[in-house]
Design brief:
This is Protoheme IX farnesyltransferase. Helix content is 72%, strand content 0%. By secondary structure, it is mainly α. It has 2 domains: 14-168, UbiA prenyltransferase (Tetracycline Repressor, domain 2); 170-301. The longest helix has 27 residues, at 274-300. The chain is flat. Mean pLDDT is 92; it is low at 1-9.
Length: 301
C-alpha cells in the first residue's frame, strides 16, 4: 500500500476536485464507446433506460478513476503531468477520495442492476474491479506489461452498452472489446515515449523505461497489425456494412502510417518526439471515428 501523503496545510476540496478524480477526459472516451456499443445493438433500448445505462457507465468509470488516484497518490506526486491532481496537490485527503470512489462504484452498480439488467451490471463490475485491482494495484508497479494486460479495463464499455440493450453478449461487441484492447498498447506507449522521464522518476516500469525506446517502437508497430485486423473484422464477417468497412480502411491506413513512422524512427534523429505525439493524438481521434462509423453504418447505411 502506498504511503499516505501528509498535507497539514491542505486546502478544502471543492466540486472541481471531485470531478478531477473521475478523470473526465478518459471518461469521455469510455462513455462514447459504451454508447456506440448500445447503438450498434440489434435491439433498441428506451431512451430513458439508455441514458441511465450510459450514466452508470460514466459513474463506474469515474469510480475507477477516483480509486486509481487514491491508490497512486504517491506516484502522481512524482510526475509533472499528474502532480496537480487533487491528492498530490494537497487539496484533498486520501480517505475522502477512497469514500468517493467506493460510493460511486456502489451507486453505479446498484442503479445498473435495478434499472437495466444483470448482464450489464456484471460486466460493469468486472471493468471497475479489473481497473482497480488488476491494473492499478497488481500490474502497474510490477511489470512493463501493465498496459498490455491492463488494457482490458478500458475495453469493457462496448460490451456493457451492448448488454444493456440486449441482455447478452455477441461477436460484434467482443470484436470491439478486442479492438480497444489491442489499441491500448500503441496508444499508451506513444505517450510513454515522450513522458518516459516522468515514469522513470516515479519508478513505474513502463516499457520505454525498462526495455528502451527501440523495443517500445517495435512493439508499437507489432500491436498495430492485430489492432487493424480486429477493426476490419466486422466487415468481412457480415457484422457491418460498406460504410463502416471503407471508413475502417481509411482510418487504419492513417494509423498504420503514423505507427510505422514511430516504429522505424530512432531517437537520435531528433528529440522533439513529434511523430510520437502525432500518433498519440490521432489514436484518440481514431477510436472516436471508427466507433462513430460503426453506428453510422448501422443507422444510416
Amino acid at each position: 500500500m502506498p504511503s499516505t501523503l501528509a498535507s497539514p496545510a491542505a486546502l478544502p476540496a471543492d466540486w472541481r476536485d471531485f470531478l478531477a478524480l473521475t478523470k473526465p477526459r478518459v471518461m469521455t472516451l469510455v462513455v462514447f464507446t459504451g454508447l456506440c456499443g448500445m447503438l450498434a445493438a440489434p435491439v433498441p433500448i428506451h431512451p430513458i433506460l439508455g441514458f441511465t445505462a450510459i450514466l452508470c457507465i460514466a459513474l463506474g468509470a469515474g469510480a475507477a478513476g477516483a480509486l486509481n488516484q487514491w491508490y497512486e497518490a504517491d506516484l502522481d506526486a512524482k510526475m509533472r503531468r499528474t502532480a496537480g491532481r487533487p491528492l498530490p496537490a494537497g487539496r484533498m485527503d486520501r480517505q475522502s477520495a477512497l469514500h468517493f470512489g467506493v460510493g460511486l462504484a456502489g451507486f453505479s452498480l446498484g442503479l445498473m442492476y435495478f434499472a437495466i439488467n444483470l448482464a450489464a451490471t456484471v460486466i460493469l463490475a468486472a471493468s471497475i474491479l479489473f481497473y482497480v485491482f488488476i491494473y492499478t494495484i497488481w500490474l502497474k508497479r510490477r511489470t512493463p506489461q501493465n498496459i498490455v494486460i491492463g488494457g482490458a479495463a478500458g475495453a469493457f464499455p462496448p460490451l456493457i452498452g451492448w448488454a444493456a440493450a440486449t441482455g447478452d453478449v455477441a461477436l460484434l461487441p467482443v470484436l470491439l472489446f478486442a479492438l480497444i484492447f489491442l489499441w491500448t498498447p500503441p496508444h499508451f506507449w506513444a505517450l510513454a515515449l515522450f513522458v518516459k522521464t516522468d515514469y522513470a522518476n516515479a519508478g513505474v516500469p513502463m516499457l520505454p523505461v525498462v526495455a528502451g525506446e527501440r523495443v517500445t517502437r517495435t512493439q508499437i508497430g507489432i500491436y498495430t497489425l492485430p489492432m487493424i485486423a480486429a477493426a476490419m473484422a466486422p466487415w468481412p464477417l457480415g457484422l457491418a456494412g460498406a460504410l463502416y468497412g471503407w471508413s475502417a480502411v481509411l482510418l487504419n491506413a492513417v494509423f498504420l502510417a503514423l505507427a510505422l513512422q514511430v516504429a522505424t524512427r530512432t531517437s537520435a534523429q531528433d528529440d522533439t518526439m513529434v511523430p510520437e505525439k502525432r500518433l498519440f493524438k490521432y489514436s484518440i481521434l481514431y477510436l472516436f471515428l471508427i466507433f462513430g462509423a460503426l453506428v453510422a453504418d448501422r443507422w444510416f447505411a
